[in-house]
Amino acid sequence: MNYQDITLDLICINSQCETEIWGFSQAFNQAEHDGIVNTIKKDNSWELQVKIQINSDPWRKGGEAEYLIELQPDKKDKKQIVGSYSGTFNEQPVSGKVTGNITPYSPTKIPNHTPISPREHPRLIFRQNQLPELREKAKTQKGQAILAQLEKSLQQKIYYEAFVPNGGYHAAGHCFLSLLNDDPQAAETAWQIVEKSLNNPGPRLLEHAPIVAGVALAYDLCYNAWDEQRVQKITDWLAQQTKILIAGTRGKGWNPTAWSNWSGRARSAAGLAALAILYEPEQFFSEPTDVRRLLKIAERNIERYLETAVGDRSFGTEGDLYSIEPWILALLPFFQAYENVFGHNFVKDSSIKWFLPHYVMRIVGEDGEISVPTYGRHRLAPVKSLFSLGWNSVPEKFLPGVMWFFHHHFGWEGDRSFAIKKPHEAAFLLAAYSENLINTSDENFIKRLLNLNFLTGLRPKNPAKVFERVLVDEEKGFYLFRNQWKDKNDFVASIYLKQQPLRASWSFPEAGGFRIWGLGGRWASAGPDDGNRGDENVVVVGDMSASGAAQPNFFQEEVDGSGVVSMNMDNVFEANDFQSLRSFAVDYSGVSGAPGFFVVVDRFTGDAPEKVWVMHTQEQVVVEDNGFMLKANSGATMRGTFVTPGEVKLDVEETKRGRKILASGGDNFFVVMTVQNGIAPEVEIFGSGLDAEVRVGERMIIFREDRVSIINN
What we know:
Blueprint: E1 7-9, E2 12-13, E3 16-17, E4 20-24, E5 32-41, E6 46-54, E7 63-73, E8 80-89, E9 92-101, E10 108-109, H1 131-137, H2 141-154, H3 167-181, H4 184-198, H5 205-222, H6 228-247, H7 261-277, H8 291-309, H9 319-342, E11 344-345, H10 355-362, E12 364-366, E13 369-371, H11 386-389, H12 399-409, H13 425-432, H14 443-448, E14 470-473, E15 478-482, E16 492-496, E17 513-518, E18 521-524, E19 539-541, E20 551-557, E21 563-568, E22 578-587, E23 596-606, E24 611-617, E25 620-624, E26 627-631, E27 637-644, E28 649-655, E29 658-664, E30 669-676, E31 683-686, E32 693-696, E33 699-704, E34 707-712
Antiparallel strand pairs: 1-4, 2-3, 4-5, 5-6, 6-7, 7-8, 8-9, 10-11, 12-13, 14-15, 15-16, 16-17, 17-18, 19-24, 20-21, 21-22, 22-23, 23-30, 24-29, 25-26, 26-27, 27-30, 28-29, 31-32, 32-33, 33-34
Helix pairs in contact: 2-13, 3-4, 3-5, 4-5, 5-6, 5-7, 6-7, 6-8, 7-8, 7-9
């Protein structure tokens, strides 16, 4: 048998270790492995006596393992540990070296948390003792507006069979109204919806996960309104579904890899369900069920998802749609529920804290009419629900900017939808929405609300005063440049290097793809979602698939949101005999005579097939002698000028998402694009090829070595 490495995790405080130990071996199978450990501390070393069950997954069986592990700190780095092990796996001898590291325990414990008591409900969205204050809060002007949105959402169609079945979420909305108004009829309506949801399980775990998550929320909110028989039925059902979502299935599209949206959906729904039924009476389960163990497995999968699926600034590997969906369907509710139940916060020192700020940086629009220049499959970004569900995922330092964005787009100054899309979101929002935006004159009422789960005493601030205008996800290779937060005319430009492609996931050939929006125009936007290299704003080289990753080799940012990023593209194209580089520059200074101008340089060295420079746009295109003019409905224009090729050949094709500009005729590309209202500034070219110097207004553009430089003339 070919044995694989296993990573073992245990918790130690002041050299005293817990007896519980967990393991994971991705190269062996996708299951979590649990056991017990006896730790013996010596002078400068540890001896671990481990007995662990290597659990099976749908593809590969496990077995029993026993290890004797001897460890000591690395002489050069005290946070690293080294040693050796010996033992058996399935009665076969094994031995080898051990390496490891010492890291702070996550999640972080919050102060003054009161543990939940058995059968205490509600507990997931808010605690039982918060209900009186919530009822008072619901009577305020904005509380009534939030409930009006809840009632509106309950009029939407219930889908029991869809990619996102929403029956459980509807039931949770009715259960929330039942709690607020002490209305048994609302609880009865919720029960009827829950029964239909149970009778319509998802055909795959992808669809089944939101059913389980929604039913778990409804169960928690209606727990005290339903009779014991109903509660027992749902308790046992949730336990069985938790096991299924954790174990996975063989076939039916199941993707167990840590970074897959399938795993994100399923494991967070399992965790939410386990939190809902934790500490329920044993007689409520049809078979012995260790809910705490199930919760721990779900938690470990969620942590692994966070570590792999999203980068250090929350850019998602599988693109916007497949990154956002797990968060709004179950992840954000899980984080909230975990904090309520255990008093531990997942946000600190994790990528969670960047998820809402990430989209505040990228969203363009006004009065609730918002859009995102997306990446990934389906070119969608259902961001609205993030802002009704995600308040408690935002650290205090970012809250003023997120609050301003919410207030400006969805609150009293926006479309007044309060970002509520699904019924259950109203409960999250009412529980977490900032009291200083309620605008009640009752000071004692404000004081009574201070023990709710949202930070108070903060005032909204324009994000420009809270965030920097440039966002860089160094792990995934995503660079965003923004000029301001004002309205639909804001400039947002980005480029994605696909620096960390991961197997067994939705990984589009997007390395080097860029987006440019501004002055109401969507100049460089996402093309169709067919998964072809030509669906991106890139250079297509022959028929190469170009599914590899780019790596950054230069980056510079400015306080006004301008910047330059250059990337090595050698590994993007498979089996090539050439080298390639792309440099992308953004200038918002206005010195050029245009409020936004952009430069893209693509350099190829060696024997490369025919190359075609591609840019997708949603605007009207007019081909000019050495470039193109784009015209938006807003009246703004983008003028693109090819410095090289000198005799560029331009074609325009209609696509499912707009138009596609194709440029050919040379070995390299040097393109200058200005966006403006009114007459475009003159572009003067001195010299030729990549050595040319280009003047736009008072700005000079040159390309030297591996980067574009923009300097004052």
